[in-house]
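Kindly inspect this today.
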Amino acid sequence: MTQSPAVVLFDLDGTLVDSAPDLAVAANRVLADHGRPPVAYARLRQVVSKGGRAMLAVSFPDFSEAQREPLLPVFLRYYGQALAQESTLFDGVEELLAALDARGVRWGIVTNKPEGLARGVVEGFGWRQRCAVLVGGDTLPTRKPDPAPLLHACSALGVAPGDALYVGDDLRDVQAARAAAMPCVAALWGYREDGDDPLRWQADHVAAHASEVLEHLS
């Protein structure tokens, strides 16, 4: 990309929104249903960007994948009941979005969170009119790291993938962007497990703070 992107697309959890507090509450409610003690918040927080299944795997390590699967709808229901109550924006995110708005750069969200829940978060933060496109994990038959959601967002906005920029805090975000031939920024402020090294993900850029994303717009 040799010029400023026409569109900036973001992952949601761990990139724009620190949703770990609300998601951890939901996971611990599922544990309570099974008579189990809560899992430490710090441990649950590490895997938020990997999704509900990853959080349940941490919460129920003795369950098989098949045994945990019926817990996912319960977890999502609990989360949906307390959507964006304790969640906050990461430092600098609102300023970044305001700067994009001021420059006339459209921005949108491509997340693996179910679209209905993602839409609830978007509305909870007052972004419904500002967010140009929202693609959730169930909007299409496939989700990240498949490039289809990013390509779908670009198609909806009428831009080529090479004229967009994707910002995300998980390896799957970088993999999806690379498969879509879309420049990407690895957000270092997001959620990571011990041993995860974003510098090895082969993102085009890395940013330690949301404000640094602006450096890659020209």
